[in-house]
Amino acid sequence: LNGFEKWLGYFGQTTSEGRTQRIDRMHFFDRTLFVDGPTDRYTTGYHPGPAKPQLLNTFPIADGALPSNDWNLQAGIWSVANEEALQSDQNIFAINTVNRDAAANYLTEANLKFTAAQDGEDKAGVLAYYQDINNFVLVGFDRVGDAWYVQAKENGIDTFQWQTNGGSVNYDVYHKIRVTKNAGTFDVRIDDMIPPDFSPVDTIFTGAGLPGLFTFNTAGAFDGIVYTIGWDEFDSGVQGWNEMAGTRSYGTGGVTVNNGYVHKGDLMSEYEFSAQVYQVSGDGHMGLAAVAVDGNNYVNGFIDTAADELVVSGLLGGTALPEQRVSVANKTDYNLRAVKLSDRVIFFVDGIEKITVNETYGASLVGLASWGTSARFNGIMAYRTEPDITPASWVKTDIGAVGFSGTIDYHDNALYMTGSGTDIWATSDMFSFLHTDVNGDWEISTRVINIDESDYWAKASLIFRNDLSANSAMVALHVAPGSYGNSIAQLMWRNSAGEFTTEINVSNLRTAFWIKLKRQGANFSGSYSTDGQNWIAIGTATPPLNASGKLGFGVTAHNNDRIATAVFDNIALIVPLNPGTIGNSQEIYEDEDPAPFTSLESAVGSGTISYQWQWTLTPGDSGSWANLDGETNETYTAPNLNGVYPEDTELFARRKATDTASQEGYSNEVSLKVIKVFDTSGSGLFIDDFNTINTGDVNWEYATRQAGGAGRSTYTDHVNYSIANNALYCEGSGVGIQTTANFARYLVGSDFELSFKLSMNYTGVDWVSVYLVDAASSIWGANDFGVHALGPGNAVAFYINDLSLNDGANNLHVISESEVETALGLESGGYDKTQEHTIQLISTAGTGGTNSYNFVVDGATIKTNLLYTYSDDTARRIDFLSFF
Question: pTM for the full model?
Answer without folding.
Answer: 0.69
